[in-house]
Prior knowledge:
There is one protein chain. With about 130 residues, the chain is α+β, with helices and mostly antiparallel strands. The chain has one domain (about 5-125). Helix content is about 30%, strand content about 45%. The chain is built from four helices and four strands; from the N terminus they run αααββββα. β2 and β3 (about 80-100) form a beta hairpin. Residues about 1-15 have low confidence and may be disordered.
Amino acid sequence: MNRLIPLILLLLAGCADPQRSSDAALPLYQGKSIETLVMRWGGPTAVTPTETMTTYTWLRNASRAMVMPTTSVGYVGTRQVTTTGTSITSYSASCKIDVFVRDKVISAWRFWGSDELCAPMLDELRS
């Protein structure tokens, strides 16, 4: 459990807020041609047409590594010995953003996934 505390604190400290980014960026693109978004992000990962709308999906995946401090406590005979060091923990992160389009015009979007990948994608739309 003690090893998880630094990881949790680091993730919380570095969290961007994709909801805030989305709320700020959507009005800039809502009602505009999907081509304006394709020009910013490049081609979508998938395009799914239905009878009433088309969903454009962008997916970003990334592998990350994090250096974590470690502490081990043991005994040599009756004497307690504490050692410290580091370990590398790897994890993967992903962000999926669906953009809903009617008649080639953006009407809404939603996102799932990692704050560290979604927020920068959405923030990029405001620059």
